[in-house]
Design goal:
Blueprint: H1 15-25, E1 44-45, H2 56-73, H3 85-97, E2 104-106, H4 110-123, E3 130-134, H5 139-152, E4 155-159, H6 168-174, E5 179-185, H7 197-206, E6 210-214, H8 226-229, E7 233-236, E8 251-254, H9 298-314, H10 316-338, E9 344-345, E10 357-361, H11 365-374, E11 378-379, E12 381-383, E13 387-391, H12 399-415
Length: 429
């Protein structure tokens, strides 16, 4: 799809390039690429797993929210759509994750939402003192679980993995009648391993535990249903594969059966049954709204809605089909072109248990990442200690993009230009 990736007519045709070109031509998602902003057509953006591209419609929505609603309608806008905006966007996310109406709401950040639900779950299992997770979880998830465990007199048990695959058997063996909460990332941030929701959830339920999933790296890239899997609770961000924008508000999923059982520990007026009565005592509303706290960032929410709508409109079945194909191509290109150069494949080989990003280990990964961004026009990220991550977002990344990205990685390595870049890392990697 990139302009440079089509300049191969004067060379022998690589069979993988022919396959990639054909796959893009026949893709059901080919027309969606144009609904995102692309300032540099030669740049390959492989960071949809970290920050999705800007949807063209997002700028229009922000302009309307600023110049029509805020500038013109002012405070009247609260009764003209703002007050229920987070519910409307939540209903769209519910379609994407296979939830029922009234089970998803947009609220706060992923970390804050994780804290709310983790503490609520532990409090709902009095006498149990164990929280179970694995060593593939995201950093903030550990910090939150520790902050919940300490005042509740709980211990966090971290189950060891092989560094790539989730330790499914060891996790299930750890669930017992002392387990209050199981909290895992559905798709792990580093390797891309993706758990089977139903397997883990069912095993935890047999032990009487509540399960809380972090969907941040799977929502918008993996086709699943929280309802079918019997999921209790989930959180997730909207700025990765949902293309909601930097710092876009996150979402909460609470199974309807638990909405009256769990109490939001972060009480705020937006979760009150009658917020404009300004009562001195807290009286939670009997709906998903009870997991709100404070006022929503309306401009950020307005910006996030178009990207979320696009994912729902396309449908996760179509998105996942292309994701699997992109990942398969990346794997074949790695085996042929990158393995001989000292890279290691750090993502599951089985398509059924991986998300939509590739992890490649290399001793000089940090320097390579900087050279690729600066010289190769391939935007990817580095994750300590030695991983390069390539996020393959199907709505705007095609097979030819993947082909060309690997070709540029190979050229950067072989040229040695990466050695000119410092070993010291910047704050954001």
């Amino acid at each position: 799809m990139t302009s440079s990736s089509t300049n191969h007519d004067d060379k022998p045709r690589d069979p993988l390039l022919v396959e990639a070109t054909t796959a893009d031509r026949n893709s059901d998602l080919a027309d969606w690429r144009g609904r995102f902003v692309h300032h540099d057509p030669d740049e390959i953006y492989l960071l949809g797993n970290s920050l999705g591209r800007l949807p063209v419609d997002a700028a229009t929505r922000i302009d309307h929210a600023v110049h029509n609603q805020w500038a013109n309608r002012l405070i009247r806008s609260w009764n003209e759509g703002w007050w229920d905006l987070q519910l409307r966007v939540g209903e769209t996310i519910a379609q994407i994750i296979g939830a029922e109406s009234g089970e998803v709401i947009v609220s706060d950040s992923t970390s804050v939402n994780l804290h709310k639900l983790a503490l609520a779950a532990v409090r709902a299992r009095p006498g149990r003192t164990k929280i179970v997770t694995d060593d593939l979880n995201f950093g903030t998830d550990y910090y939150v679980l520790d902050s919940v465990a300490e005042p509740c007199g709980c211990d966090v048990e971290i189950i060891a993995s092989d560094g790539i695959h989730g330790p499914v058997e060891a996790l299930c063996a750890a669930f017992d009648d002392n387990t209050a909460l199981v909290s895992l990332s559905h798709t792990t941030f580093k390797s891309g391993f993706t758990y089977d929701l139903e397997t883990i959830t069912s095993a935890a339920h047999r032990a009487g535990a509540i399960v809380l999933w972090d969907l941040s790296h799977s929502v918008g890239s993996v086709d699943f249903s929280v309802e079918t899997a019997g999921v209790d609770l989930a959180v997730g961000c909207t700025y990765k594969y949902l293309n909601g924008g930097p710092g876009a508000p996150a979402f909460i999923y609470v199974n309807r059966s638990l909405q009256k059982v769990l109490s939001n520990p972060v009480r705020g007026w937006w979760g009150h049954a009658a917020p404009f009565d300004f009562e001195t005592a807290y009286r939670p509303t009997e709906s998903i709204r009870s997991f709100h706290a404070g006022t929503m960032p309306i401009l950020s929410l307005a910006a996030a809605e178009p990207g979320i709508e696009m994912v729902a409109e396309v449908g996760m079945a179509s998105i996942r089909q292309v994701s699997v194909s992109l990942m398969a191509l990346a794997e074949r290109l790695y085996d042929r072109d990158l393995a001989p150069l000292g890279f290691q494949w750090k993502t599951p080989r089985d398509p059924a248990v991986r998300g939509s990003h590739v992890a490649l280990a290399h001793p000089n990964a940090w320097q390579l990442s900087q050279a690729l961004i600066d010289r190769g026009k391939v935007l990817l990220d580095f994750r300590a200690p030695d991983n390069l991550r390539l996020g393959l977002a199907p709505l705007y990344i095609g097979h030819v993009d993947v082909y060309e990205a690997v070709a540029r990685i190979r050229r950067i390595v072989e040229s040695g230009v990466w050695q000119q870049y410092p070993e010291e890392r910047s704050v954001v990697t």
